[in-house]
Amino acid sequence: MADERAGRYRFTGSVAGGLHQRLVTPMKILPELVAKLTHGHDAWIVGSAANPENKTPRDYDVQVPYSQWGQAAMLIPKDATRNSFGGWKCKSDGVEVDVWPGELGWIMQRPMCLWAWHPASGVRLNRCNEKAEL
Predict the structure, then answer these.
(1) Spatial separation of the C-alpha atoms in residues 119 and 2, rounded to whole Å
(2) Which parts of the chain register pLDDT below 70?
(3) Which residues contact 43 (CB under 8 A, 6 or more apart)?
(4) Is 9 helix (H, G, I), strand (E, B) or coil?
(5) What angle do CA 113, 115, 121 make, to 5 degrees?
(6) What's the CA gap between 64 and 18, in Å, rounded?
(7) Fewest CB within 10 A of the end CB: N or C in the chain?
(8) Residues contacting residue 106 through CB under 8 Å, at least 6 positions apart
(9) Is this structure's pTM higher than 0.85?
(10) Read out DSSP for 38-103?
(11) Contact status, residue 127 vs residue 117, Cβ threshold 8 Å
(12) pLDDT digits (tens, 9 = 90+) for 95-130
């Protein structure tokens, strides 16, 4: 659902704890670049901005699948700078956005990443810290 006046997308729901539990969260308006990447290029919001408890993220970390990176990279502003993940850091609607190519499995294995959210489908993942015993 597009909000034409703001040029942004609004989302009213999310899926948490796997695909079985549906949680309704307050409406979240994404920065324009984040909305374009998540809806047009199958990208995931990862890290603290994907946490449903975080109502006003200070920044967005966005991971774009390798298969979509060629087209998605063309949306990144020319004044963007390189980030530590091999992607780009820029501002969208006054909010910092880090964008890089990669696969979700890789980032979810990193200790710093507890959350991932796919706004286009409403899927939200929360990594649990339980390891299987051998």
Answers:
(1) 13
(2) 1-28
(3) 34, 37, 62, 63, 64, 65, 68, 72, 99
(4) strand
(5) 135
(6) 21
(7) C
(8) none
(9) no
(10) HHHS--EEEGGGG-TT-SS-SEEEEEE-HHHHHHHGGGS-TT-EE-TTSSEEEEETTEEEEEEE--
(11) no
(12) 999 999 999 988 888 888 999 999 999 999 998 877
Q: Which of 30, 48, 127, 37 is nearest to 88 (CA)?
A: 37
* DSSP summary character for residue 128: -
With a CB cutoff of 8 Å and minimum separation 6, the contacts of 28 are 10, 11, 55
Q: What is the length of the chain?
A: 134
Parse the chain into domains and list their residue ranges. Answer: 7-126
* CATH fold group of domain 7-126: Beta Polymerase; domain 2 (3.30.460)
CA dist 20 and 132 (Å) reads 22
Q: Are 92 and 31 in contact (CB under 8 A)?
A: yes
